[in-house]
Specification:
By secondary structure, the chain is an alpha/beta fold. The chain has 15 helices and 17 strands. One of its GO terms (cellular component) is cytoplasm.
Amino acid sequence: MLKDEIIKCDENYFMTVYSGRYPLVIDHGSGIRVYGQDGQEYLDFLAGIGVNALGYGHPVLVKALQEQVAKLIHCSNLYYIEPQAYLEKLLIKNSCCDRVFFANSGSEANEGALKLARKYFKTRGEKKFEVITAERSFHGRTLVTTAATGQEKYHKPYQPLPEGFTVVPFNDLTAMEEAVGPETAAVMIEPVQGEGGVYPAEQEYLQGLRELCNQKDILLIFDEVQCGVGRTGSLFAYEEYGVEADIMTLAKALGGGVPIGALLAKEKVASAFEPGDHGTTFGGNPLASRAAVTTLEVILEDGFLEGVKEKSSYFIKQLEGLIAETCNVKGIRGLGLMLALELSSSISAKDLTMELFNRGFLVNAVQEHTLRFLPPLIVEKADIDLLVGELADLLK
């Protein structure tokens, strides 16, 4: 089908949950560039919303997937799966956790984390089930993870939502302390908030949360669905802070483009799950596991994560140059290659995103006046220069 036919088909048959789709049908990609059916080239600084960590057509990932498709795509978790075993070992050997469960998405991983937290206290005979999350947080699209999300706009269409969630301001340790009650089971936090506008946690805040959870005998859950798997310049965002959680969730970049999520936990918590307590049909299937193993192996190669940090510093420096050039930029925030550009109140991020799209750049507006950048981790400094050059021209 041609572009107009595809758009018409979508309008006729697809549920209207996505508003304002861009008039682009991506046909193929290479590196950080994607190409529409008409051959138009775009530099992708969104990476499928933080998914395509290795960009498009990465030869190592392509080869691995071709081999796995020819060999075995899916089999039930009733049987042992070799790529899954490799993935289990890679994640546990490189994290602070002891056990892992595989899902299909970040929402599923977070749902599993919340179930595990409740089951942990249930096995101890304690009535603890409430979870405290933060304002601006985003934890998923299921009913429970929607309830956990600290943004009212996601709540309104589905109220009444499942109970047991309290939302407090992010980076406010006092508010968190005051919210803890006798039935609090866990605190669930994104070390770097993504959908909420790219807000990193403060060092003292995460340290304080760990101490608070220890004192009150509650669990600390890190949602690293967006900020994990190399995005911050470390394999996991918590490594940037030196603070460990009891439970951690991953997804997005983990499969390099193939859907997979992961729920990781320390042994004392993970052991609360017993046979039959949780499960999945597709989670950790051979294809998704092979994709994740390959993605992690590339990211863990010598110099890769150091390169992410170097390119992050360069990106931030170039964006900071815009502050000196125009009064239309208020600031830059983020960590690694997860960055936000806060604009003045006179600039619409949505309008600027469309202007950039028309010039061949894919970015994202996460708030009324905030642009989000989540480029593939293989982005080059020359690519960054091209984007910042266009931004400078538009903002002037």
